[in-house]
Amino acid sequence: MSFENYGDDMDPGKRDIMEATHIAVKKHGYSDLTIQHIADEFDRSKALIYYHYDGRDDLLVDFLKYILGGFLATLPEEGSSPREELDDLIELLLPTTVNEEPYRLMLSMFELRMNAPHDEAVREQYLEVEERVRMALEDILRRGIESNEFVDINVEVEAETLLSLLIGIRARRLTVYNPEQSIEPLKATIDAYLDRISTAVE
Description:
It contains 9 helices and no strands. By secondary structure, it is an all-alpha fold. The chain folds into 2 domains: about 1-55, Orthogonal Bundle (Arc Repressor Mutant, subunit A), CATH 1.10.10; about 75-195, Tetracycline Repressor, domain 2 (Orthogonal Bundle). Helix 4 (about 55-75) runs parallel beside helix 7 (about 120-145). The protein is elongated, with a radius of gyration of 19 Å. The two termini are about 30 Å apart. GO terms for molecular function: DNA-binding transcription factor activity; transcription cis-regulatory region binding.
């Protein structure tokens, strides 16, 4: 995920902290991450971190917002065919292979997600992201029906189905697959789903 030009409207100090946290999380993961790890990637005083945040957990709530906001900024824009947009969105959420550092970031976000039942701020952020992705899926499917790329389906139901598939496969990847392991067998499930709703099966 590229964060170039993302967060330009943030307080400069906070943006620097978020960028340092981004690097530190990819190196150390969520469980082992400390404020010192973040400070090691930060070219300002460690005191500035504590000026903005009470501690690691407080900082990570802001970091989650930063990461999820960056993800939303990379959602495919309308322009290519609906099927190509859908393929791009699936690849964004589920790259077939990843190297170790991006995998650590994905795993850290998954671990933060597990806090959602106990942390309303985390839960609200994931609800917002899911709603935005669901709306994007509905829009793609609706335009795909209009352009005769997809069969006539219940857009709301199918978008929810696809969203659940994507979240479930992402969770399986992070719990039972090794970082370097291809998830092509898991993505075959999505391919089968897309074949079912497509007007032409290649």
